[in-house]
Amino acid sequence: MTGQEFIEIEGGTPLSGSVCVQGSKNAILPMLAASLLPEKGCSVIRNVPPLNDILVAFELMRYVGARVDYFPNEKVVSVDATHLTRSDLPESLTCRLRASVLFIPPLLARLGEVRLPSVGGCPLGARNLNYHYRGFARLGAQITSEDDFVISGEDFTGTTMYLDFPSHTGTENLMMAACYSTGVSVIENAASDPEITDFANFLIKMGAKIHGLGTRTLTVEGVPALNPIDYYAMNDRLDAGLWMMAAGIAGGKISIIGVAPGDIRILIEKMMQMGIDIGINGHVLDVSSPGRHLKPVNVLTCPYPGFATDFQPAIMALSCVADGQSYIRERIFDKRFSQVAELRKLGASIELDEEDGLAIVNGPTTFRGADTNPDNIRAASCILLAGLACPEKTIIRNVYQIDRGHFDIESRFQQLGARVVRK
Ligand SMILES: CC(=O)N[C@H]1[C@@H](OP(=O)(O)OP(=O)(O)OC[C@H]2O[C@@H](n3ccc(=O)[nH]c3=O)[C@H](O)[C@@H]2O)O[C@H](CO)[C@@H](O)[C@@H]1O
Ligand SMILES: C=C(OP(=O)(O)O)C(=O)O
């Protein structure tokens, strides 16, 4: 990948064929961190796509002394963390990966101290980490510097932790730390996303005792040690959603292989409200759409099981081609509308009140070709989708963002007959 790379889309072709869903980045990242917990032996994680964020996580793990062997064709990684040597994470890596924060619990458990400089990830607004640090402090950690986040302590005692908001990685982090704390911990108002349940199952396979999976209250009984395991990570509901919405906006009929329909039921519901046909055949979704004359939609993002904020930019692309006004309300992040400026370059008519977290989309738009520069994964997905409905050429720069979240995107689109090329 070079900085000059871009993706070019020439839309207007209906999609046909089948596409397989990749492994879930947001489930695999905490698993990679937790694979540093066992004191001896190799853990194996399967269904691991070569996404930029995952590759950066491998670099962080190697930096602290773990041996990481990755087999991209088999999508398998093995991790041996027997000889960890350091826990001062380098900013050159943490500034590229928000999930760097997930390395705090294993490094505390193994080495007793962590230095975590600023963390990167999608620029979506404030993205505070106060629930993480408050939770670690309640378990017994000392936060010795808030500037560079130096945190220390290893003998934690179970406690009750309440999250003011059900933070996704906050829940994962405190659940992971509670696993090796003495006694019982309760995490109230926890996030209940499917990735958290899959991660909890990963920890349980390692020997952890976690109760309340999939609910908003998690109870964790501390255990003396966690063991290396071999685990098959869940598929990525965000990748599945991208393909569903691609068929929705481009038109045509595709089959999406490897979906847990229950994990994306609100997206299915909203797309059906827009006039898109979705057939559920076990773990395969058959999506067919006219691609035009979609119905407008109202969306309000919420913690799981509500409408996922990570789908908000993409469904905005669909709402642009709908006949009428759509209302899209963002309630998770304070700056999650960066795709609006890029969609406007393609001719979209969107009234934006970012303070109120409201975008009113005036459809239908006939997109025109444009040169775009989305600043995060889901904004890039949004423009990819808009490009499929645009008869002229759409350029997407900053391809690094797409490659953080979706593996081999152009080949998988080409497989469905779309004209999407990397140049
Ligand atoms: C790697 C990963 O899994 N990323 C996902 C994770 O991000 P991430 O875990 O960072 O998102 P959170 O659920 O923590 O954030 C949700 C909201 O809570 C606030 N907050 C969070 C923690 C905290 O200590 N203090 C605080 O105020 C944030 O500023 C934000 O407004 O969940 C998001 C919301 O579903 C998704 O968009 C991301 O794709
Ligand atoms: C927001 C995302 O990732 P991160 O939390 O790592 O920025 C994402 O996957 O859309």
Features:
23% strand, UDP-n-acetylglucosamine1-carboxyvinyl-transferase, Chain, binds uridine-diphosphate-N-acetylglucosamine, 423 residues, globular, 14 helices, binds phosphoenolpyruvate, alpha+beta
List the helices and strands and how they pair.
Elements: E1 7-10, E2 15-20, H1 25-34, E3 42-46, H2 52-63, E4 67-71, E5 76-80, H3 91-94, H4 104-111, E6 113-115, H5 130-139, E7 142-145, E8 150-152, E9 160-162, H6 168-179, E10 184-188, H7 194-206, E11 209-211, E12 217-221, E13 230-232, H8 237-250, E14 252-257, H9 265-273, E15 277-281, E16 284-289, E17 298-300, H10 312-320, E18 325-329, H11 339-345, E19 350-353, E20 358-362, E21 370-372, H12 377-388, E22 393-396, H13 399-405, H14 409-415, E23 419-422
Parallel strand pairs: 2-14, 3-13, 9-10, 17-18, 21-22
Antiparallel strand pairs: 1-22, 1-23, 3-5, 4-5, 6-8, 7-8, 10-12, 11-12, 14-16, 15-16, 18-20, 19-20
Helix pairs in contact: 1-2, 1-7, 4-6, 5-6, 6-7, 8-10, 8-12, 10-12, 12-13
Catalytic activity: phosphoenolpyruvate + UDP-N-acetyl-alpha-D-glucosamine = UDP-N-acetyl-3-O-(1-carboxyvinyl)-alpha-D-glucosamine + phosphate
GO molecular function: UDP-N-acetylglucosamine 1-carboxyvinyltransferase activity
Function: Cell wall formation. Adds enolpyruvyl to UDP-N-acetylglucosamine.
